[in-house]
Structures
1.
Amino acid sequence: MRLICLLSVAVCIMLGQVPDDFPPTKRDIEAQDRRLPNGKSQRDEIIRADHKKNLEDAAQLIQLSQELKDDLDKGDAFLVSVKTLKKLDDIDKLAKDIRGRLKRY
């Protein structure tokens, strides 16, 4: 019982020592709108570039998926080529890249 009381007092003391003005967080820094020399928002330009790259990667992902399907249709049930495994790795990498860009915002 005494331990609980001591812990609660210690927490209250620690909370009282927390400063009111915290340093800015990463999100606060990102919220500041930086401008490029041409006057456009840097954040908006990055978002546009990421969107364009996502579209390109999605198109490549579709192409690789179709090639993978064709390889599996042509192949044997007991044999998988190294080329097919490489396509799987490329598909995985593209999906992770797209996911990473989408999670930023």
Note: The chain has a mean pLDDT of 82.
2.
Amino acid sequence: MGKRTAYMSAGLLAAVLASSSGCGNVILGPNLGLLGYPIPLSPYFQKKEEDAFWNHKRYDRTPVLGPFQAGAPEIALDAPSEDEVMRRLEKARPVQGGLPLLHEVQRNHVRIVTEPIQDSVDPPRVMPLVGPVQTHHVHFKCTVYYTEVTHVGWPVPYTTVDEDCQEVLYIDHDHLHMVGNVDPGPGTGYPNPPPMR
């Protein structure tokens, strides 16, 4: 009996040591199989998602602004930023995501000229989920002048430089202005139904 007890305690000790050292196949949580291991992804996909979020947050939504002030000019004050113009240009004619050492395109010496081409306000109307508003149409013509450098690395390495590139983009900055009395009602947090002007 003594030998048998010694063998059992030695086996139990070996099982405890094997499970605590990480040598055994002990799973304490859900087993995801192959999905439990990290899968390498290209940074291209991460940048694509970040750019989509940035565009949605900054440029893809229509803001609802306060009403026009009496006697103030009804003009738009926000021209497209350089970031917005370059993101629109990249969306229309992409150069990012080339093949390093095989084919790469760069835009250098960029100059942006922005011209307003329309600034008008529609008459008031009621929009669902917004209320009585006026649509302010603002359109810009953005001309981008740049030097395009193309590096080709295979089969014959060469570089081309086009110094007279230009692209024309039309950017709309339409937004809404509230109409009428927009003071919140007593304790509701919502605007009173304003009269049409």
Note: The mean pLDDT is 84.
